[in-house]
Amino acid sequence: MNYQVLINAIKVGIIASDGGVATSFAALGNTRKDTLSFNTTAPTFQKIMVEERDTPILNVMTDPGGLQMQWALTDWDADILTALWGGTVVDEQWLEPAILPTVEKSLRIEPRQGKPFIYPRVQLTAQIQYDTTGKIFQIQVTADKLQPMKAGTPAFMWGDPEE
After folding, report:
1. Could you list the pLDDT tens digit for every one of the 163 residues in the chain?
2. In this structure, are residues 149 and 19 in contact, taking their beta carbons and an 8 Å threshold?
3. For residue 92, which of 106, 78, 108, 104 has the smallest C-alpha distance?
4. 3 and 113 Cβ atoms separated by less than 8 Å
5. Are 21 and 118 in contact (CB under 8 A)?
6. Cα 158 from chain centroid?
7. Helix (H, G, I), strand (E, B) or coil at 73
8. ∠ CA(131), CA(136), CA(144), 5° rounding?
């Protein structure tokens, strides 16, 4: 039995030039305790009915559903803000761009025990929040799983081929 226990690291990497999974990963910052969540949306189906039967003759999937991961960063710097929102850094000051870019990365979630969760292509969005219970500013990061651009690459991999 292989248990996935606690989080060792949440890392992102630049998607490979061929559209496959990144070859190197780095953490954006420290993950606030108990903030990682996996949220799935259920697939939707269209039931094909006929007059002669009370049950569907076919059930066609019209939307496979999706997966979204969220976590909060407790510490950040200008480079992390640039990685999430673009912009520039001048004299250690981060300057927001006039138009926020679409940020796509590879994502690797490493449990302390167990195999890593690898997503070759996710879209990252982020929000700065103030948690009044913890009295801390944090960046809430959301990663939406996307289909990789490289043909034959799955959207999710569990385990590391190098282990």
Report:
1. 556 678 889 999 999 999 999 999 999 999 998 899 988 889 999 999 999 999 999 999 998 888 999 999 998 889 899 999 999 999 989 999 999 999 999 999 999 888 999 999 999 999 999 878 878 899 999 999 999 999 999 999 998 766 5
2. yes
3. 78
4. yes
5. yes
6. 14
7. strand
8. 60
